[in-house]
Amino acid sequence: MNDQEVILRFDEVSFGHGHNKPILNEVSFSVRRGLKITLMGQNGAGKSTVFHLITGDLEPDSGFVHLGTGLTVAASKQIIPRDQLCLSLREFFQNCFKEKIYDIDPKIDEVLEVVNLVADHDRLIKSFSGGQQARLLLASAIIQNTDLLLLDEPTNNLDKEGISHLTKFLIDYQKTCIVISHDADFLNAFTHGVLYLDVFTNKIEQYTGNYFDLLVEISARMERENRKNAQLAKRIIENKEKANYFAQKGGKMRLVAKKMRDEAVEMEEAKVDVRKEDKTINSFTIPCQEDIGGEILNITSFSVMKKHKFVKKEASISLRKKERLLLVGPNGIGKTTLLESLASGKSKGAKIAPGVVVGYYRQDFSTLNFEDMVYQSLSLVAGNSSEESIRSLAAGFLITGNLIYSKIGNLSEGQKGLVSLIRLVLQKPGLLILDEPTNHINFRHLPVIAEALNKYEGAMVLVSHMPEFVEQIRIDEILDLGK
């Protein structure tokens, strides 16, 4: 077997979602056997679309996707489809194969060990936490033992131990792998090269090395391009000034002037489009509900999951304005369940002050109606805000143009996250409940989001497995559900 063999090649592939938004424009790149490649780009650039083209779920509008003869491909999705949540664990893994696997139980045990998860094979998928479901998504791709492994945001919802386990697996992995992720530190642990999907040009640029190498190379290229353009701009001005001078002389000098103007036009055309760096969302503020004071949230008890059973624990937590509580604990301990019970007002051991507006960011975006248009979803919580102000706010979150009239279900996961943040701004809550607000979000946006949370004047309860994000936020109290 040739380790240098090209097993995947895109040959001038173009694709436009709904034919009104180009996603790929004559894209060409290749991947060799045994390499671990990162696919990066802005939220909504089309990274998941590239995976669908590789698996054959989508067909290119033009160009060709070449896979090596007999090459097998498996992909892990970002989230478990809703129609699979009622399956048992055994049924979920059986669905990974076209034909029935009669000895699947040993294979399940083996792959669950790889992702550091122990579970009964008859347990329903919906009973697993978000972090545990992330491990199952990864396991569903690994169990197929294919030549090419495609992982779409595999660290989302994973705790520190889960990310460490996945990182080691990928370092030791002997086959070919392409990973979509916004976690630069995670990627740099194993990446051989980067495919960068530019949301402005709809091209894929191929780089050797990790993401930090990519940044250095892009910066150097931008500097070269800016320098070349500056030199050309200077010569263009000189030529135009000389052309005007010679044109006034009349006679044969007019021909010289025309030649110099033509040269100026050629130099204008020779200018290169300097690469636009990924845009970040605008700085924003989440306004706090007016006329609230005193205690906003009081928690006297909560439940945690221990050996598949909920165990009640006592607590003494009180949150007022500008106070932030961080919930920590391993995947499956019950963090999301606790947040859900707080947001719904059904928690027996917690009380939210009467009249407090709760802004709830769910990691699975189930507070959004996927059939709604973005504008419709925003206007539902916008009060008296005008269409112009809603569109202006959305544009600051890179939800521009036709996107605001797209169905939420058609957005990328990262764009759904941005829509959820816009809704919080419009809601003006007195209590923020945030369950993994960094999942799927381009890492360039994270400092902007952290700044907004720091400026927020209300009470806040946060769950996040991203230490570098949490470190940017002032936390007043930590509740460790695992202790």
Shape, per Cα inertia axes: globular
For the record, give the distance between the C-alpha atoms at the N and C termini, rounded to a whole number: 50 Å
Radius of gyration: 26 Å
Instruction: Return the average pLDDT rounded to an integer.
Output: 85
CATH topology of one domain: Rossmann fold
**Reported CATH architecture of one domain:** 3-Layer(aba) Sandwich
Structural class based on helices, strands and sheet pairing: alpha/beta
Task: Give the strand content.
Answer: 15-25%
Major sheet, described briefly? 6 strands, mixed
What does this structure look like?
- The chain has 483 residues and is of the alpha/beta class.
- Among the domains are: 137 residues, 3-Layer(aba) Sandwich (Rossmann fold); 184 residues, Rossmann fold (3-Layer(aba) Sandwich).
- Strands 5-6-7-3-8-9 form a six-stranded mixed β-sheet, sandwiched between helices. A five-stranded parallel β-sheet has the order 14-15-16-12-17, with helices on both faces.
- Helix 3 crosses helix 4.
- The longest helix is centred in the middle third of the chain and has 39 residues.
- It is globular, with a radius of gyration of 26 Å.
- The chain starts with 5 loop residues before the first strand and ends with a strand.
Strand-helix topology:
Layout: E1 6-17, E2 21-32, E3 36-41, H1 47-55, E4 62-67, E5 73-76, H2 89-94, H3 104-114, H4 130-142, E6 148-152, H5 160-172, E7 176-180, H6 184-188, E8 193-198, E9 203-208, H7 211-249, H8 253-270, E10 297-306, E11 309-319, E12 324-328, H9 335-344, E13 350-352, E14 358-361, H10 374-379, H11 387-396, H12 413-427, E15 431-435, H13 446-455, E16 459-463, H14 467-470, E17 477-480
Parallel strand pairs: 3-7, 3-8, 5-6, 6-7, 12-16, 12-17, 14-15, 15-16
Antiparallel strand pairs: 1-2, 1-4, 8-9, 10-11, 10-13
